[in-house]
Specification:
elongated, alpha+beta, five-stranded antiparallel β-sheet, seven-stranded mixed β-sheet, 25 strands, 21 helices, 643 residues
Length: 643
């Protein structure tokens, strides 16, 4: 061995030592110095933020029947560039099988992301759910879809939501901040394909809280009123019909109906004009329905009901314009101005009240202002300042032209009439609940104050409203055994393009209350552009009669029935065969009218819920079953001759 030469093994050992030292240093650097950075990167690949899948709050009627509810759903998406040919064929087959036609073409697009379906019920896509767990590039986003179990019942009032769950119309829109769940997010572990290792049910546990809303609406009354409106349109024609029904004591609206209605689940099948709750968003000239308010203003200034004005024999010139009555009148008492619905008489009475005072009374009765109900786009109506009224404006305002009100505002004004001048605003939302605890978090608080401090004047006006029905233009609203008061109205529709009024276009009104001497219910009916007849007494009053009679039967308000119940006799004004009731058995109601069935129900202490109109063709419970006081009898009616 030569001296002074280093063996090769030493070079190898030295190199190995240096390499090991470098590796050790690198390990120290990675595991100690850079550990937090790499740990964060690993977490970012293994963990992700999962959004909560909260359900939108329910909407129920006053009886707890569900009007709007959210059910579990999924939205199906794909990353086309990550899906192979074989998998694409499998997905297309599943899409076809589960009803998604013409969607498969989206998988052939150049997009990195496409929606295949949005918000479909989760239990309706079992094949796609299975494939999403197997195929990289196909995914399901859990969520909910809105359902309306009652179909088109109260469609305009409830409204609907969009594909992303936001309220777009009606109460769904105005209560969106209450019904829409608060989003929550959580870190959730992912698998190698970066899909969350958590199921839909687990995601639902993370969901934010939402609140449920109870409305004042009574579903059975709502259905009854909607049917009456639909039948009116069939009989008299017209673009649309509206009706509102409210309790006098509280102002709670028990029915807010429109015809035609629409199913919020299929809102895209209707035009936007059909969506809005026109009873709050649209305004119309009220016509002669304001004459009782003008009379109240006159009485509040000390005038007497027997005072007279001259009807000018049917024609009266105001500021070079001729005001006419349908029938010529001579001298008219203040009472008969309303009973006979004289426009000229109303102008004379309004002149006695004075311009500024009449304007102030209209304001007190809710005209020209929003009522603050929970509905989007509530209309203020048109009531120009008295300082801007010309002599003609003042005259026409006295019989309800040149100003406009929504049906909801007219309902409010008749609530003031019924309540001796105290305010009780109509409302639609009764309570809000926290569904997780069942606790009530909000309830309606009535705000009662006097807006017209002349109860004696309003008591006299109500007597006049009763005379309108008994002997005047509202005769077709009459119900035997029920004291009804109200006022008809026939108003022209303005021409918004050419100015003035449209030829042949009218609004038919009826506004009323019952029982008139101690009102419990107030209602308003409007028919837009009826074609068979234009008059409120011919078109709107019969709808009010149907509604009032049905409510009176349900509530036991027919005075003649109450008087006869003590004698255990059944009045039979239409002279049809009414079976003798057995006190403990349900009678056979088939073939009877609603009125006679109502008498039998009231005699047994039961309430009656009708479906349809005409004569009774079916009943529950069946005839002969045990009858107990407090029971509810359901009857189905059909018109005679219906197939």
């Amino acid at each position: 061995m030569r001296s002074g030469r280093v063996p090769k093994i030493a070079f190898v050992a030295a190199g190995t030592g240096i390499a090991l030292a470098v590796i050790a240093a690198r390990l120290v650097y990675v595991q100690v110095v850079k550990a937090p950075v790499f740990q964060k990167l690993a977490e970012q690949r293994q963990m992700g933020t999962a959004a909560s899948v909260g359900a939108r709050g329910e909407i129920v009627d006053r009886n707890g029947d569900v009007l709007a509810i959210s059910v579990p759903a999924v939205s199906i998406y794909a990353h086309p560039h990550r899906i192979g040919t074989d998998d694409r064929q499998r997905i297309c087959g599943a899409l076809q099988a589960e009803g998604f036609k013409n969607v498969c073409t989206r998988l052939g697009s150049d997009s990195k992301f496409v929606w295949l379906a949005r918000s479909v019920p989760r239990d309706g896509v079992p094949q796609l759910t299975e494939l999403a767990a197997e195929i990289d590039g196909l995914g399901l986003l859990p969520g909910t879809v809105r359902r309306y179990p009652k179909g088109d019942l109260a469609g305009q009032l409830i409204g609907f939501v969009g594909v992303d769950g936001q309220g777009l119309e009606g109460l769904e829109r105005s209560l969106d901040d209450i019904l829409r769940p608060q989003p929550k997010r959580a870190l959730v572990e992912r698998d190698a394909r970066r899909k969350f290792l958590i199921g839909t049910d687990d995601l639902n546990i993370l969901a934010g809280g939402r609140q449920s809303v109870e409305l004042t609406i009574d579903g059975s009354l709502q259905a009854l009123v909607e049917r009456s409106l639909s039948q009116s349109l069939e009989t008299f024609g017209g673009r649309a019909a509206i009706a509102l029904l409210a309790e006098v004591e509280t102002g709670a609206v028990r029915a807010a109906a429109m015809a035609p209605s629409f199913d919020p689940s299929r809102f895209k099948n209707h035009s936007p004009a059909d969506w809005r709750p026109r009873f709050a968003t649209d305004t119309f000239e009220p016509g002669s329905t304001v004459k009782p308010i003008v009379l109240a203003a006159a009485l509040s200034k000390g005038m007497a009901m027997h005072e007279i004005v001259f009807g000018e024999n049917g024609k009266f010139l105001v500021d070079e314009h001729v005001i006419t009555d349908d029938e010529p009148h001579g001298w008219l008492s203040l009472r008969n101005v309303v009973v006979k619905s004289s426009n000229i008489g109303a102008v004379k009475v309004g002149a006695k009240v004075g311009k500024s005072d009449l304007h102030q009374v209209f304001t007190s009765f809710g005209f020209g202002q929003k009522l603050g109900v929970r509905l989007p786009s509530e209309a203020r109506g048109i009531l120009r300042p008295a300082s801007r009224w010309s002599e003609l404006d003042f005259a026409t305002a006295s019989f309800g032209q040149g100003l406009s009100v929504s049906p909801l505002q007219l309902l409010y004004s008749y609530l003031v009439l019924a309540r001796d001048g105290s305010m009780q605003r109509p409302y639609f939302v009764e309570r809000i609940f926290d569904p997780s605890t069942g606790e009530m978090v909000w309830s309606h608080s009535p705000l009662e104050e006097s807006v017209f401090p002349h109860p004696d004047a309003l008591s006299q006006v109500r007597h006049v409203l009763a005379s309108v029905v008994d002997e005047g233009t509202g005769a077709r609203a009459r119900v035997d055994g029920l004291a009804i008061g109200g006022k008809t109205g026939t108003a022209q529709k303005p021409d918004l393009v050419a100015g003035g009024y449209r030829e042949g276009a009218y609004i038919a009104w009826f506004a009323g209350m019952f029982p008139i001497h101690r009102p419990k219910w107030v209602g308003v009916v409007l028919v837009d552009e009826p074609s068979v007849s234009i008059y409120g007494g011919a078109v709107a009053a019969p709808v009010f009669r149907e509604i009032a009679e049905s409510v009176a039967i349900r509530e036991g308000l027919l005075s003649s029935l109450a008087a006869n119940a003590a004698d255990q006799t059944l009045p039979d004004p239409v002279r049809i065969a009414v079976p003798t009731p057995e006190i403990d058995r349900v009678p056979d109601l088939v073939g009877l009218s609603l009125r006679d069935a109502g008498r039998l129900a009231q005699w047994h202490g039961a309430s009656l819920v009708p479906l349809g109109s005409g004569i009774i063709v079916g009943q529950t419970p069946a005839a002969g079953q045990q009858a107990n006081r407090g029971d509810t009898w359901h009857v189905r009616l059909e018109r005679q001759g219906a197939g």
